[in-house]
Amino acid sequence: MSLKLSFPRWAKISLAVIIVLLAVFIPLASAFPDGLERVAETLGVVESEPVWHAPIPDYFLNIGGEWLGTLIPGLIGVAVTAATIICISLIYVKVKKHS
Amino acid sequence: MHIPDGFLDLTLTIAMFIIAALIWIPSFYKANKNISERNIPLMAVLTAGVFAAQMLNFPIIGGTSGHLIGATLIAVLLGPFPAVVSMTIILLIQGLIFGDGGLTALGANSFNMAMIAVFTGFTVYALIRRYIPGERGILTGVFIGSWLSVITAALACGLEIGLSSIFPYGIEVTVPAMLFWHTIIAFGEAIISSAVVAVVLKTNNELIPAVKGLNVAVEPPIIK
User: Fold this and answer.
1) Along the 224 residues of chain B, how does pLDDT read in single tens digits?
2) Which residue in A78, A85, A93 is closest to B52 by CB distance?
3) DSSP assignment letter at A63
4) Where are the domains of chain A?
């Protein structure tokens, strides 16, 4: 059994559109607290220290300013997410072929 | 709506992981039916797109913002069970790499955004499509389904933090507060989700699978 994983043109275009939209909207994104953060803030509840120290906290890397510092983590996230989904889906497909 | 570490007490943390596991197991199993070689690119692109969209907060009123959850959007295009898989992966990556959402709250966050939001959004969408035919039914279903998916997720989140003994306020405070902000944020979810589906309908309407019971038709979509 061989797996043929091909990325059709529409998938590449969609991925490019996602990256362009991300790059365009990063400077426009709101830095205001989100719904839950706002509720916690209003009630005076502060977040405790996280149990895990994430390598790129708050989607920001201190390189090349605000825009690039957010875009690069965004691209890393997009790549890791897509790669993880591909790996998991391939496991699904392989298991299905075996059964 | 990502709950950080330190909002939920030990009992709730464990309870939410158990509840989530009881939904994860059958959902990951049932996703098998929907995931095929042909829709791997769709699932990858869609999940990555929702990840990116979750980074982009839109301002609402009163110095507050919101962002897309995307649960309904993924469920409409891939089916609710693969949507549970996709949303869980997003939450896991957000927690592990970006510190968004506490890892101790992963059970609760998954329950709210990868389960409650997915199943509310999809059920409402499926019901509406049954009564309104054609593209109008699809778009109305996505709009109302995604709006309600945020409301139910916010309700669940409000209940969780309100019931937690280490959160200083009870559900009589947390639930109305969560619902107040998310009633507005949910419109952002509804507008973005239905706009994306409208674009998909315009470019390739066969990409929107038919609804079959509480799942989408298993045949992979034909992508031109």
Assistant:
1) 999 999 999 999 999 999 999 999 999 999 999 999 889 999 999 999 999 999 999 999 999 999 999 999 999 999 999 999 999 999 999 999 999 999 999 999 999 999 999 999 999 999 999 999 999 999 999 999 999 999 999 999 999 999 999 999 999 999 999 999 999 999 999 999 999 999 999 988 788 999 988 899 876 555 55
2) A78
3) S
4) 14-28+58-99
The distance from CA B72 to its chain's CA centroid, rounded to whole angstroms, is 5
ipTM exceeds 0.90: yes
Q: Does B121 touch chain A (CB under 8 A)?
A: no
Residue B65 main-chain phi, psi, to 5 deg: -130, 175
Pick from B17, B96, B97, B103: nearest CA to A51: B103
Q: Do the bridges between strand B65-66 and strand B58-59 make them parallel or antiparallel, or are there none, so unpaired?
A: antiparallel
Domains of chain B: 10-216 (1.10.1760.20)
| Cβ–Cβ gap A88/B63 under 8 Å | no
Choosing among B3, B47, B152, B183, which should be mutated to test the A contact, i.e. which has the most A CBs within 10 A?
Answer: B47
| Structure letter (DSSP) for residue A44 | T
Amino acid at B129: R
Q: What is the dihedral of CA B122, B126, B132, B136, to 10 degrees?
A: 40
Check if B179 contacts A (Cβ < 8 Å): no
Which residues in chain A are contacts of B100 at CB distance < 8 A? Answer: 54, 58-59
| B95 with A5: Cβ contact below 8 A | no
Task: Please list every residue in chain B whose beta carbon sits closer than 8 Å to the beta carbon of residue A84.
Answer: 89, 93
Q: Which of A50, A74, A90 sits opposite B99 (nearest CB)?
A: A50
